[in-house]
Amino acid sequence: MKKQQAKLINTTLQAAYTGEDNVALSAAIARLCAEMYDPHMRMNKDSGAYEEVNDHEWELLFFMQNIANHLWAAMYDTRTNKAGYIKGVKHKLDRAQDNLKQVSAKYDGTEIALESVNRAAGWVERLETKLAMFEEMYHMFADFMEVACGESHRPYEPWVTAVDTTPQAASDKEAELAAALAERGITLSVGHVANTNGVDTEVA
Questions:
Q1: Are 149 and 75 within one domain?
Q2: Are residues 10 and 89 in the same domain?
Q3: What are the E-state strand segments in 6-66?
Q4: pLDDT one-digit tens code per residue, 162-200
Q5: Do 24 and 58 sit in the same domain of this protein?
Q6: Phi and psi dihedrals of 81, rounded to 5?
Q7: Which domain covers residue 184, as residue numbers?
Q8: What's the pTM?
Q9: DSSP element (H, E) containing 7
Q10: Do 192 and 203 touch, CB atoms closer than 8 A?
Q11: pLDDT tens digit string along 101-160?
Q12: Which residues contact 110 (CB under 8 A, 6 or more apart)?
């Protein structure tokens, strides 16, 4: 990226960060939809009349679905990351609130106890703010998807559908590929065993 272009982008970002540009989230999403809008007339087989449709309707739908799914997962994903921490902010908040109750119940008036309660309360507040942000963004994208694409968003929850229903992957590589495709709403049949005689390979 050229320095001039980077400088221009940074100026635009700073204006957005500070609220100088005063662009609402709804307007920003509408602008994204407009970038993927190319109207043309098509015959409606049911009504027999021509109607205006978006030539990029499937691309826009895929784009909006993926963002909405990502936001939904950011809130409610029950899976854990490599460090063993749960991914969904809503579940993090539930645990943080339980921790705050426990720490508060043990408060004995000491400086250390006061700091523990303060730290626990601060963590709850940060998670509440983050959850509220994700909720606003999710509903905004879902609403725009319904109007712009004509389809209501149905959250994709691989952490629910994959539980005790998906065969175990035969290798780490297969598991990684299955997970990557699952994020796109594609199910990869895993768990196959390759039988090979050194020349021909068959999958059982």
A1: yes
A2: no
A3: 39-43, 50-54
A4: 654 444 555 666 766 776 676 666 777 766 544 444 444
A5: no
A6: -85, -175
A7: 166-204
A8: 0.73
A9: helix 3-18
A10: yes
A11: 999 999 898 999 999 999 999 999 999 999 999 999 999 999 999 999 999 999 999 998
A12: none
